[in-house]
Request: fold
Amino acid sequence: MAEAGLAALWLAAAMALLQLIGGMTLLRGGAGQLVPLIKPAAYVQGALCAFAFLALMWLFYVTDLSVLLVASNSHIDKPLIFKLAGTWGNHEGSMLLWVSVLSVSGAAIALLEKRIESKTLNAALAVQAFIALGFFAFLLFASNPFERLVPAPIEGNGLNPLLQDVGLAFHPPTLYFGYVGLSIAFSFAVGALLTNQVGPAFARAMRPWVLAAWIFLTIGITAGSYWAYYELGWGGWWFWDPVENASLLPWLAATALLHSVSVLATRNALRAWTIMLALVAFAMSMAGTFLVRSGILTSVHAFAVDPERGAFILALMLIYTSLAFVIFALRIGSVKQGEPFQLISREGGIVANNIFLSVILAVVLIGTLYPLAAEAMGDKISVGPPYFNKATVPIAVLLMLALLIGPMLRWRRDDLKRLKYWLIGGAAILLWSGIAVWKFAPDVGLFPLLGIALSLALAVAAWLPLRGRKLLRTPLPMFGMVIAHFGIAVSVFGMAAESGFSSETLTALAPGESAEIAGWQVKLDDVNPVVGDNWVAIEGELQAVKNGSAFVLRPQSRQFYRPEMQTSEAALLTRWNGQLYAVIAQPDQEGDGRWQVRLWWKPFVPFIWYGGMLIAVGGIIALLGRMFRRAKKPAKNKWQTT
Amino acid sequence: MNRPWLLWIPLAVVAFIGGLAMYGLAVPKDEQVHSAMIAQNLPAFSLPAATAGVEGLASGDMADGKPRLLNIFASWCLPCKAEAPYLEALKKAGIEIDAIAIRDRPEDVAAFLNEFGNPFRRIGSDSEMAVQLKLGSSGVPETYVIGGDGTILYQHIGDIRAEHVPMLIEKVNAAK
Amino acid sequence: MRMLALICLMLATPVFAQGSGPTPALANRQLPDPAQEAAATNLMHSLRCIQCQGQSIADSDAHMASTMRAEVRQQIAAGQKPEAIRGWMIARYGEWVSFEPDMKGAGLLLWFTPLLVLIAGIWLARGLFRRGA
Reply:
């Protein structure tokens, strides 16, 4: 099986090469004989890669220990789900997953995409083949997942205990799916540039891929944040750590791209912008992968770090992005300006969205790389949460303001006077909630206050684009947008409430003693040892009482062996208005029988992740809407010839 | 577009980031946090004895005109065991060594000295790591060269290996 | 068998131990004055742990982080200003220990980045509107 998988990979690489050469003859202007082979090559490449990936999965399923990758990442006693997750829970397998998804997507495009000219489609497929070739080279020469191990061991090495967590087993592939989607957007953008077809048809073809990528990234970041929240044990949910930033950067670019590609698809404007953002989004996903894998920046979440492989990813990233930007610089001059619009218009609002998102992206990127640049100059400095919060939140406030008004504006030109009652209403909500929060808690910070006021206003304003519409005849993507924007309001409300109004109690309790936090009486009933598969833990039994209702929380302090590692499993009690977060840590002082207990009451904190999920749901609804519409009627090609 | 050079900015940014990333990969990352207290006076401290039979350590004890080494160690730290023979060698070379034991119990320190020998003149017990923090020290083991006037001259991070011994002797002698 | 393994592990603490000193009193206890505690917490979130380098001392289980938290709370309780305490840490570990770079030298550029990028973005975008219908 391993040999068959490897052979499939080589053949797939050959197909990709064929696609690339076909694409090059196409661009030479010649109607080369290879051109008609591009699409079939894409199908075959997709099928071969899918086969190779399934072959690897099979090897993990049967735990074929004569394969090095299986032997070093799996174990005969592991639960089936983690055996299968082991397929991509390591470097080689994750790269194979990456290239497989890429190839299968390529086949899907070749099969389904009928809206754009075949020349552009072929060029896009060739670009994709070029990207895939880089990863094939990486797999075949530097990280062969099918390498045999002689002699075969008897039971296998196991898997990083932290990765034996359902959340973590599915977190990296989620992000990878997002990255692959962005690579497809990139291929479309470069293909359209090369064949001079930067117009609405291209935008419509690219949009579902951007949307899908963005949905995966949204889910990945939301889930990652929640995981860090309950696993790291100090109640934080975003640390501005390099690895977190690496996942945020592509999301920011994808969010901006999602908006500008809509403008291009419906209004035929923002052509150069959209191309630029498509290139940046893919560059950011490669840069993110590089930052995570190379370990050049110190991170809490660093595992699977390998500088040599980092160098390979860096080389690929530099080749793809610099070639793309050279093409951009040479060709964008021939892309004509799109349809004009005024500052006060839907397009204007989306330009504001794009600018603010790009500024946040630039700040996060510069802040993340700054210590490295400073070190090159001989300074050792750190850039962390205080900087990122202070530097990005004001821009996010501007972004929220644009979001309050933008979706209500008409395309092309509008007059704020038309919306004056809504604007006055919105300003009233802002002012009222701002003052109310300030009255309630005069010493709350400016950011939480603004965040609560803005999110309340947005929670109303998000629904306004639906006013005056017949709901049954409203297109699904419109609902998707409204829900996603409402999700932002929900999420920002959670962030603001958490950062402004959390309370904290740090204490040490002996069994029988209790502590107080935000109206809760928390009593430590008992402390017991607990044993897991590869860890031992101290489990505290806490009883939390408020207004007569009692709840039991069981936080653990886990000690893993092989490899040694200590983790806190926080216990969370979710109420409608917040979460009680309890952690048990070490014995306080030797011999006094007390345990360190940390308690937080975090008002409305789950809203952060509810909001994130709503945003993703909005994206899914929009994506379904686009697919249904396409199935019902072929898209109008009003702007086809430009 | 009337400003063609603008179009090349993205490429320049890619080149810059690429250069930075290559630098990051090529230059081995310095994971150590170096003390910023070099060339400054020892912070004032006074630590009780870490174990019976060896006196405790105060900052004043090290400003007696004689340059020396200050070793930060702990009985529970593996590299500290590995560096014990080289501390012994330094002592044989006539260098006076004081020590601070981090988060340690008297009986553990005694057992450690029993097993690996005692090259130290004095050992202070820093059970809460407070003095370690004052020194700008980031872990165990570390070894400082202290001038005769109580100035911190040099910080060696990590265990002392054979190749460090002549270097440390030279640093101490240079301070005389 | 499992229970036996557990007991062995419990007895074999030195394998995992980072020593056995007392934890400083203020490492995991709040200051009685809420305003002082808020100032201390705020500062702790902006200081980098020396031992586990990716985290702030407010989010870390490392012993060094405990010691640093205790130091911060002690100095705050003694009436010290947070910025002075940051200076105290920087004097010992260099600029590296602060997650919030100073607004001077290399850090100055960093703090002006958002503004510069915003201006550049607006400047780039202004051409889009000019030909407005």
In short: Chain B has a mean pLDDT of 89. The CA atoms of residues 83 and 160 of chain B lie 5 Å apart. The helical segments of chain B are 9-26, 78-92, 106-116, 130-135, 164-174. Chain B touches chain A through 20 residues (CB under 8 Å).
